[in-house]
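Subject: complex prediction, re-run

Hi both,

The earlier run crashed halfway through, so I resubmitted it with identical inputs.
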Amino acid sequence: MVTDAGTDAWAALADGTRRTIFKRLVGGPMAVGELAHGLPVSRPAVSQHLRVLKCAGLVSDRAVGRRRVYRVNREGVEALRSELDMFWGQALDAYALIADEGGHES
Amino acid sequence: MTSSTVDPIRKSVVVNAGIERAFALFVEKFDAIKPREHNLLSVAIAETVFEPRVGGHIYDVGVDGSRCEWARVLVFEPPSRLVFSWDIGPTWQLESDPTRTSEVEVLFIAESADRTRVELEHRHLERHGSGWQSVADGVGGDAGWPLYLHRYVDIVTAGVSQ
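This time it finished cleanly. Structure:
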């Protein structure tokens, strides 16, 4: 994966147009054309802004037919999910052990 | 607003205990069941308490007496069913807005007189991501903005480092 180490999220969102683009994507996934609609910048400029947001890990994209659809990166929730998966695995192991120990005592 | 869902976490275990005891152990021994390293207090946890009633909480008590309530008991139906909220956000901070919390359901199913199947489901995880909407709300003014962005950066960093 190619990421621009110099681009952090703070820097990426320091730009007003990029904040507007990001704000729109928070409302739901959108293609470049839809994003450009109503913005006072050209479509190539929007693509350029999206590249910066993507490098900062704020958005991700995928091809849907001939369009490229952008969305806010959900990595945060996915990371939480894997952490909780481990958490509950450990918890239930401990629980089974406690039930066994209790069984021997009684 | 539509939001994509995140698959629930589903775990199950069969324990060597009858259903009544299996339920009681889960609640009474939750202190020993919950992995200790997950701690929102600034000091070590002395104990974790599961209050056995609807409207009760699950909370950690620190060695200095400080207290952190991180779950609300939503359903308490011994010996077969428990539901509690998960009021902890993606960066292991307390989440005070109930619309941004997920929930955990635990079902106890008797397999025999001394064996019980326990099925756990942690669902609505996507609600923890609804903070994104607040990011958008905060863009215009500066009030909530730096806070949420900071949180977002923490999340992304945590995701990458795994």
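Strands of chain A lie at 30-31, 59-64, 67-72.

- K.
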